[in-house]
């Protein structure tokens, strides 16, 4: 199965993943047991409001002591004082889809071409950017690439937190991309187009995929105009009008348990509002399809939301028997 994959660092998945988000720090470990991926340990610690504010251009860690306390706590539970995978918030990176009619054969030439293309819309000098890309859909009019760029010093902030806690961030990746990985690892690419809505208290992201190929990506901060359901409706209209969409075969929601009153009264109300706008069932992402939980771990909605990007990072290149 072809995994959807993006990384700011090109490395094999480690055994422990950590997500440093604006509202919490969470971690998990996955191991093979009897030919199955199994979540062997997990931990989560809340952050005080304003301790970390995800940003594309500015420093994001505003209360380092609070973030370090939470990070040390979760790593103590999962044994992550070693090489780890790090999941960072979507707003830290700018994601673009670019298409080339001809793709250079030499990797260094392709790298220069990608950088030349994205520098036009980069919010900071491309020399300050960490750029990564992966092949997307192949069409008659060219090869598409999913390109992500982040300010190097912003990514370094997150890496330095891990280093101070005794963990080396050998792999750095985005939240929504790894939720996609969790879905693909669990059930494989849906036959029809599908929509993922990934939300956090500080931001919301929409990803439309055709099978395993990303067709559309949008991330918006909490300060953006309109409600989340308005944003999803706009995304669906763009899909129909500009992408010749024939309808979503699946709509997935992740993170609803964390948004609270900022987006909807509760997770059920958020799901219902999306279903009314889209006219179809909205299902929660369940990382247990990609990595089972042990009997001592309960599968509460909040835990499943926290585990989804962590499991996605840890299993994306693994093959369970």
Structure description:
- With 321 residues, the chain is of the alpha/beta class.
- The chain folds into two domains: 16-91 and 152-315, Nucleotidyltransferase, domain 5, CATH 3.30.420; 94-148, Dna Ligase, domain 1 (2-Layer Sandwich), CATH 3.30.1490.
- It is built from eight helices and 14 strands.
- The chain has helices spanning 64-78, 107-118, 152-164, 175-187, 228-242, 256-259, 267-278, 301-315; strands at residues 16-20, 24-33, 36-46, 83-88, 93-100, 129-139, 142-151, 168-174, 193-200, 203-210, 213-221, 250-254, 282-284, 292-293.
- The strands form three sheets. It has a six-stranded mixed beta sheet, sandwiched between helices. The protein has a five-stranded mixed beta sheet with strand order 11-10-9-12-13, with helices on both faces.
- The radius of gyration is 19 Å and the shape is globular.
- Residues 261-265 have low confidence and may be disordered.
Sum this structure up briefly.
With about 325 residues, the chain is α/β, with parallel strands linked by helices.
**Mean pLDDT over the full residue set:** 88
Structural class: alpha/beta
CATH architecture of the largest domain: 2-Layer Sandwich
Biggest sheet strand order reads: 8-4-1-2-3-14
Please report the distance between the alpha carbons of the first and last residues. Answer: 13 Å
Low-confidence stretches: 261-265
Please, how many helices? 8
The radius of gyration is: 19 Å
CATH superfamily of the largest domain, called what? Answer: Protein of unknown function DUF3822, C-terminal domain
């Amino acid at each position: 199965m072809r995994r959807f994959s993006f990384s700011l660092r090109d490395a094999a998945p480690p055994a422990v993943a950590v997500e440093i988000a604006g509202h919490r720090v969470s971690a998990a470990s996955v191991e093979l047991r009897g030919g199955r991926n199994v979540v062997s340990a997990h931990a989560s610690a809340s952050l005080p409001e304003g301790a970390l504010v995800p940003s594309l251009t500015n420093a994001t860690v505003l209360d380092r002591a609070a973030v370090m306390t939470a990070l040390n706590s979760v790593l103590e539970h999962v044994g992550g004082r070693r090489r780890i995978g790090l999941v960072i918030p979507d707003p830290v990176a700018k994601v673009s889809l670019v298409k080339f009619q001809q793709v250079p054969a030499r990797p260094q030439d392709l790298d220069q071409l990608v950088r030349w293309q994205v520098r036009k819309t980069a919010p900071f000098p491309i020399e300050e950017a960490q750029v990564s890309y992966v092949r997307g859909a192949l069409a008659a009019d060219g090869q598409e690439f999913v390109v992500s760029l982040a300010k190097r010093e912003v990514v370094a902030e997150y890496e330095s937190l891990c280093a101070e806690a005794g963990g080396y961030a050998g792999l750095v990746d985005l939240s929504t991309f790894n939720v996609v990985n969790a879905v693909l690892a669990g059930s494989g690419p849906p036959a029809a187009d599908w929509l993922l809505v990934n939300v956090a208290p500080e931001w919301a992201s929409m990803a439309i995929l055709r099978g395993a190929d990303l067709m559309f990506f949008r991330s918006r901060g909490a300060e953006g105009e309109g409600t989340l359901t308005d944003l999803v409706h706009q995304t669906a209209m763009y899909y129909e009008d500009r992408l010749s969409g024939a309808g979503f075969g699946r709509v997935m929601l992740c993170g609803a348990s964390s948004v609270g009153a900022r987006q909807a009264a509760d997770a059920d109300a958020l799901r219902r509002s999306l279903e009314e706008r889209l006219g179809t069932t909205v299902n929660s992402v369940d990382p247990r399809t990609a990595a089972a939980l042990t009997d001592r771990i309960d599968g509460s909605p909040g835990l499943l939301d926290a585990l989804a990007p962590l499991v996605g990072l840890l299993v994306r290149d693994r093959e369970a028997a």
